[in-house]
Design brief:
Oligomer: single chain
Order of helices and strands: HEEEEHHEEEE
Radius of gyration: 15 Å
Helix content: 10-25%
Largest sheet: 5 strands, antiparallel
Structural class: alpha+beta
Distance between the termini: 26 Å
Number of helices: 3
Number of strands: 8
Strand content: 25-35%
Amino acid sequence: MTRFNRLMVGVFASTSVFALAPAVHAATLRVTVDNLAPENGTALTPAWVGFHDGGFDLYNRGEPVTEGVERLAEDGIVDALNAEFLDSGAGTVQGFITGPAGNTAGPIDPGETTSFEFSLDANAASSLYFSFAVMNLPSNVFFIAIGDP
C-alpha cells in the first residue's frame, strides 16, 4: 500500500458517529482526521467538511474544478469553498478541522489526529450526505476529497 493509499484510508475510515438521540432530532457527529503518514511524511492542511442533501458536488474527475476546490488544493484556503457550499443551497452545516489543540491554523502533521464535533438535525435532508476535502502538503495541486455525493 502506498503512502497515498494509507493517507486516504485514514481520512475515510476516521469519520464516525458518536451520538444520535432518537427522541430528539439533534445529532452530534464527531469527524476525526488521522494523518497516517509516517514520520517525516506528508502533512495535511486543515480539512473542509460539509453536510448536505446530496446536491453538493465537490468535483468530477476529468473536469475543471471550481474556484473553491482550486484554492483549497493550491493554497489550503477554504473561503471560496465555503461560499460555493452555501450558494449551492444543499446544506448549511460546514466546518474547517484544524490541527490539534494549540495549532488552530496549521497543518495536521504526520501521526497527528484532530477532531471537531458538528450538530445536525438528524431528520433533515440537509444532513444526509457528507463531503470533505483536504490538501496534501507539500504540494500545490494535490487534494483528497469525496467527488460524488
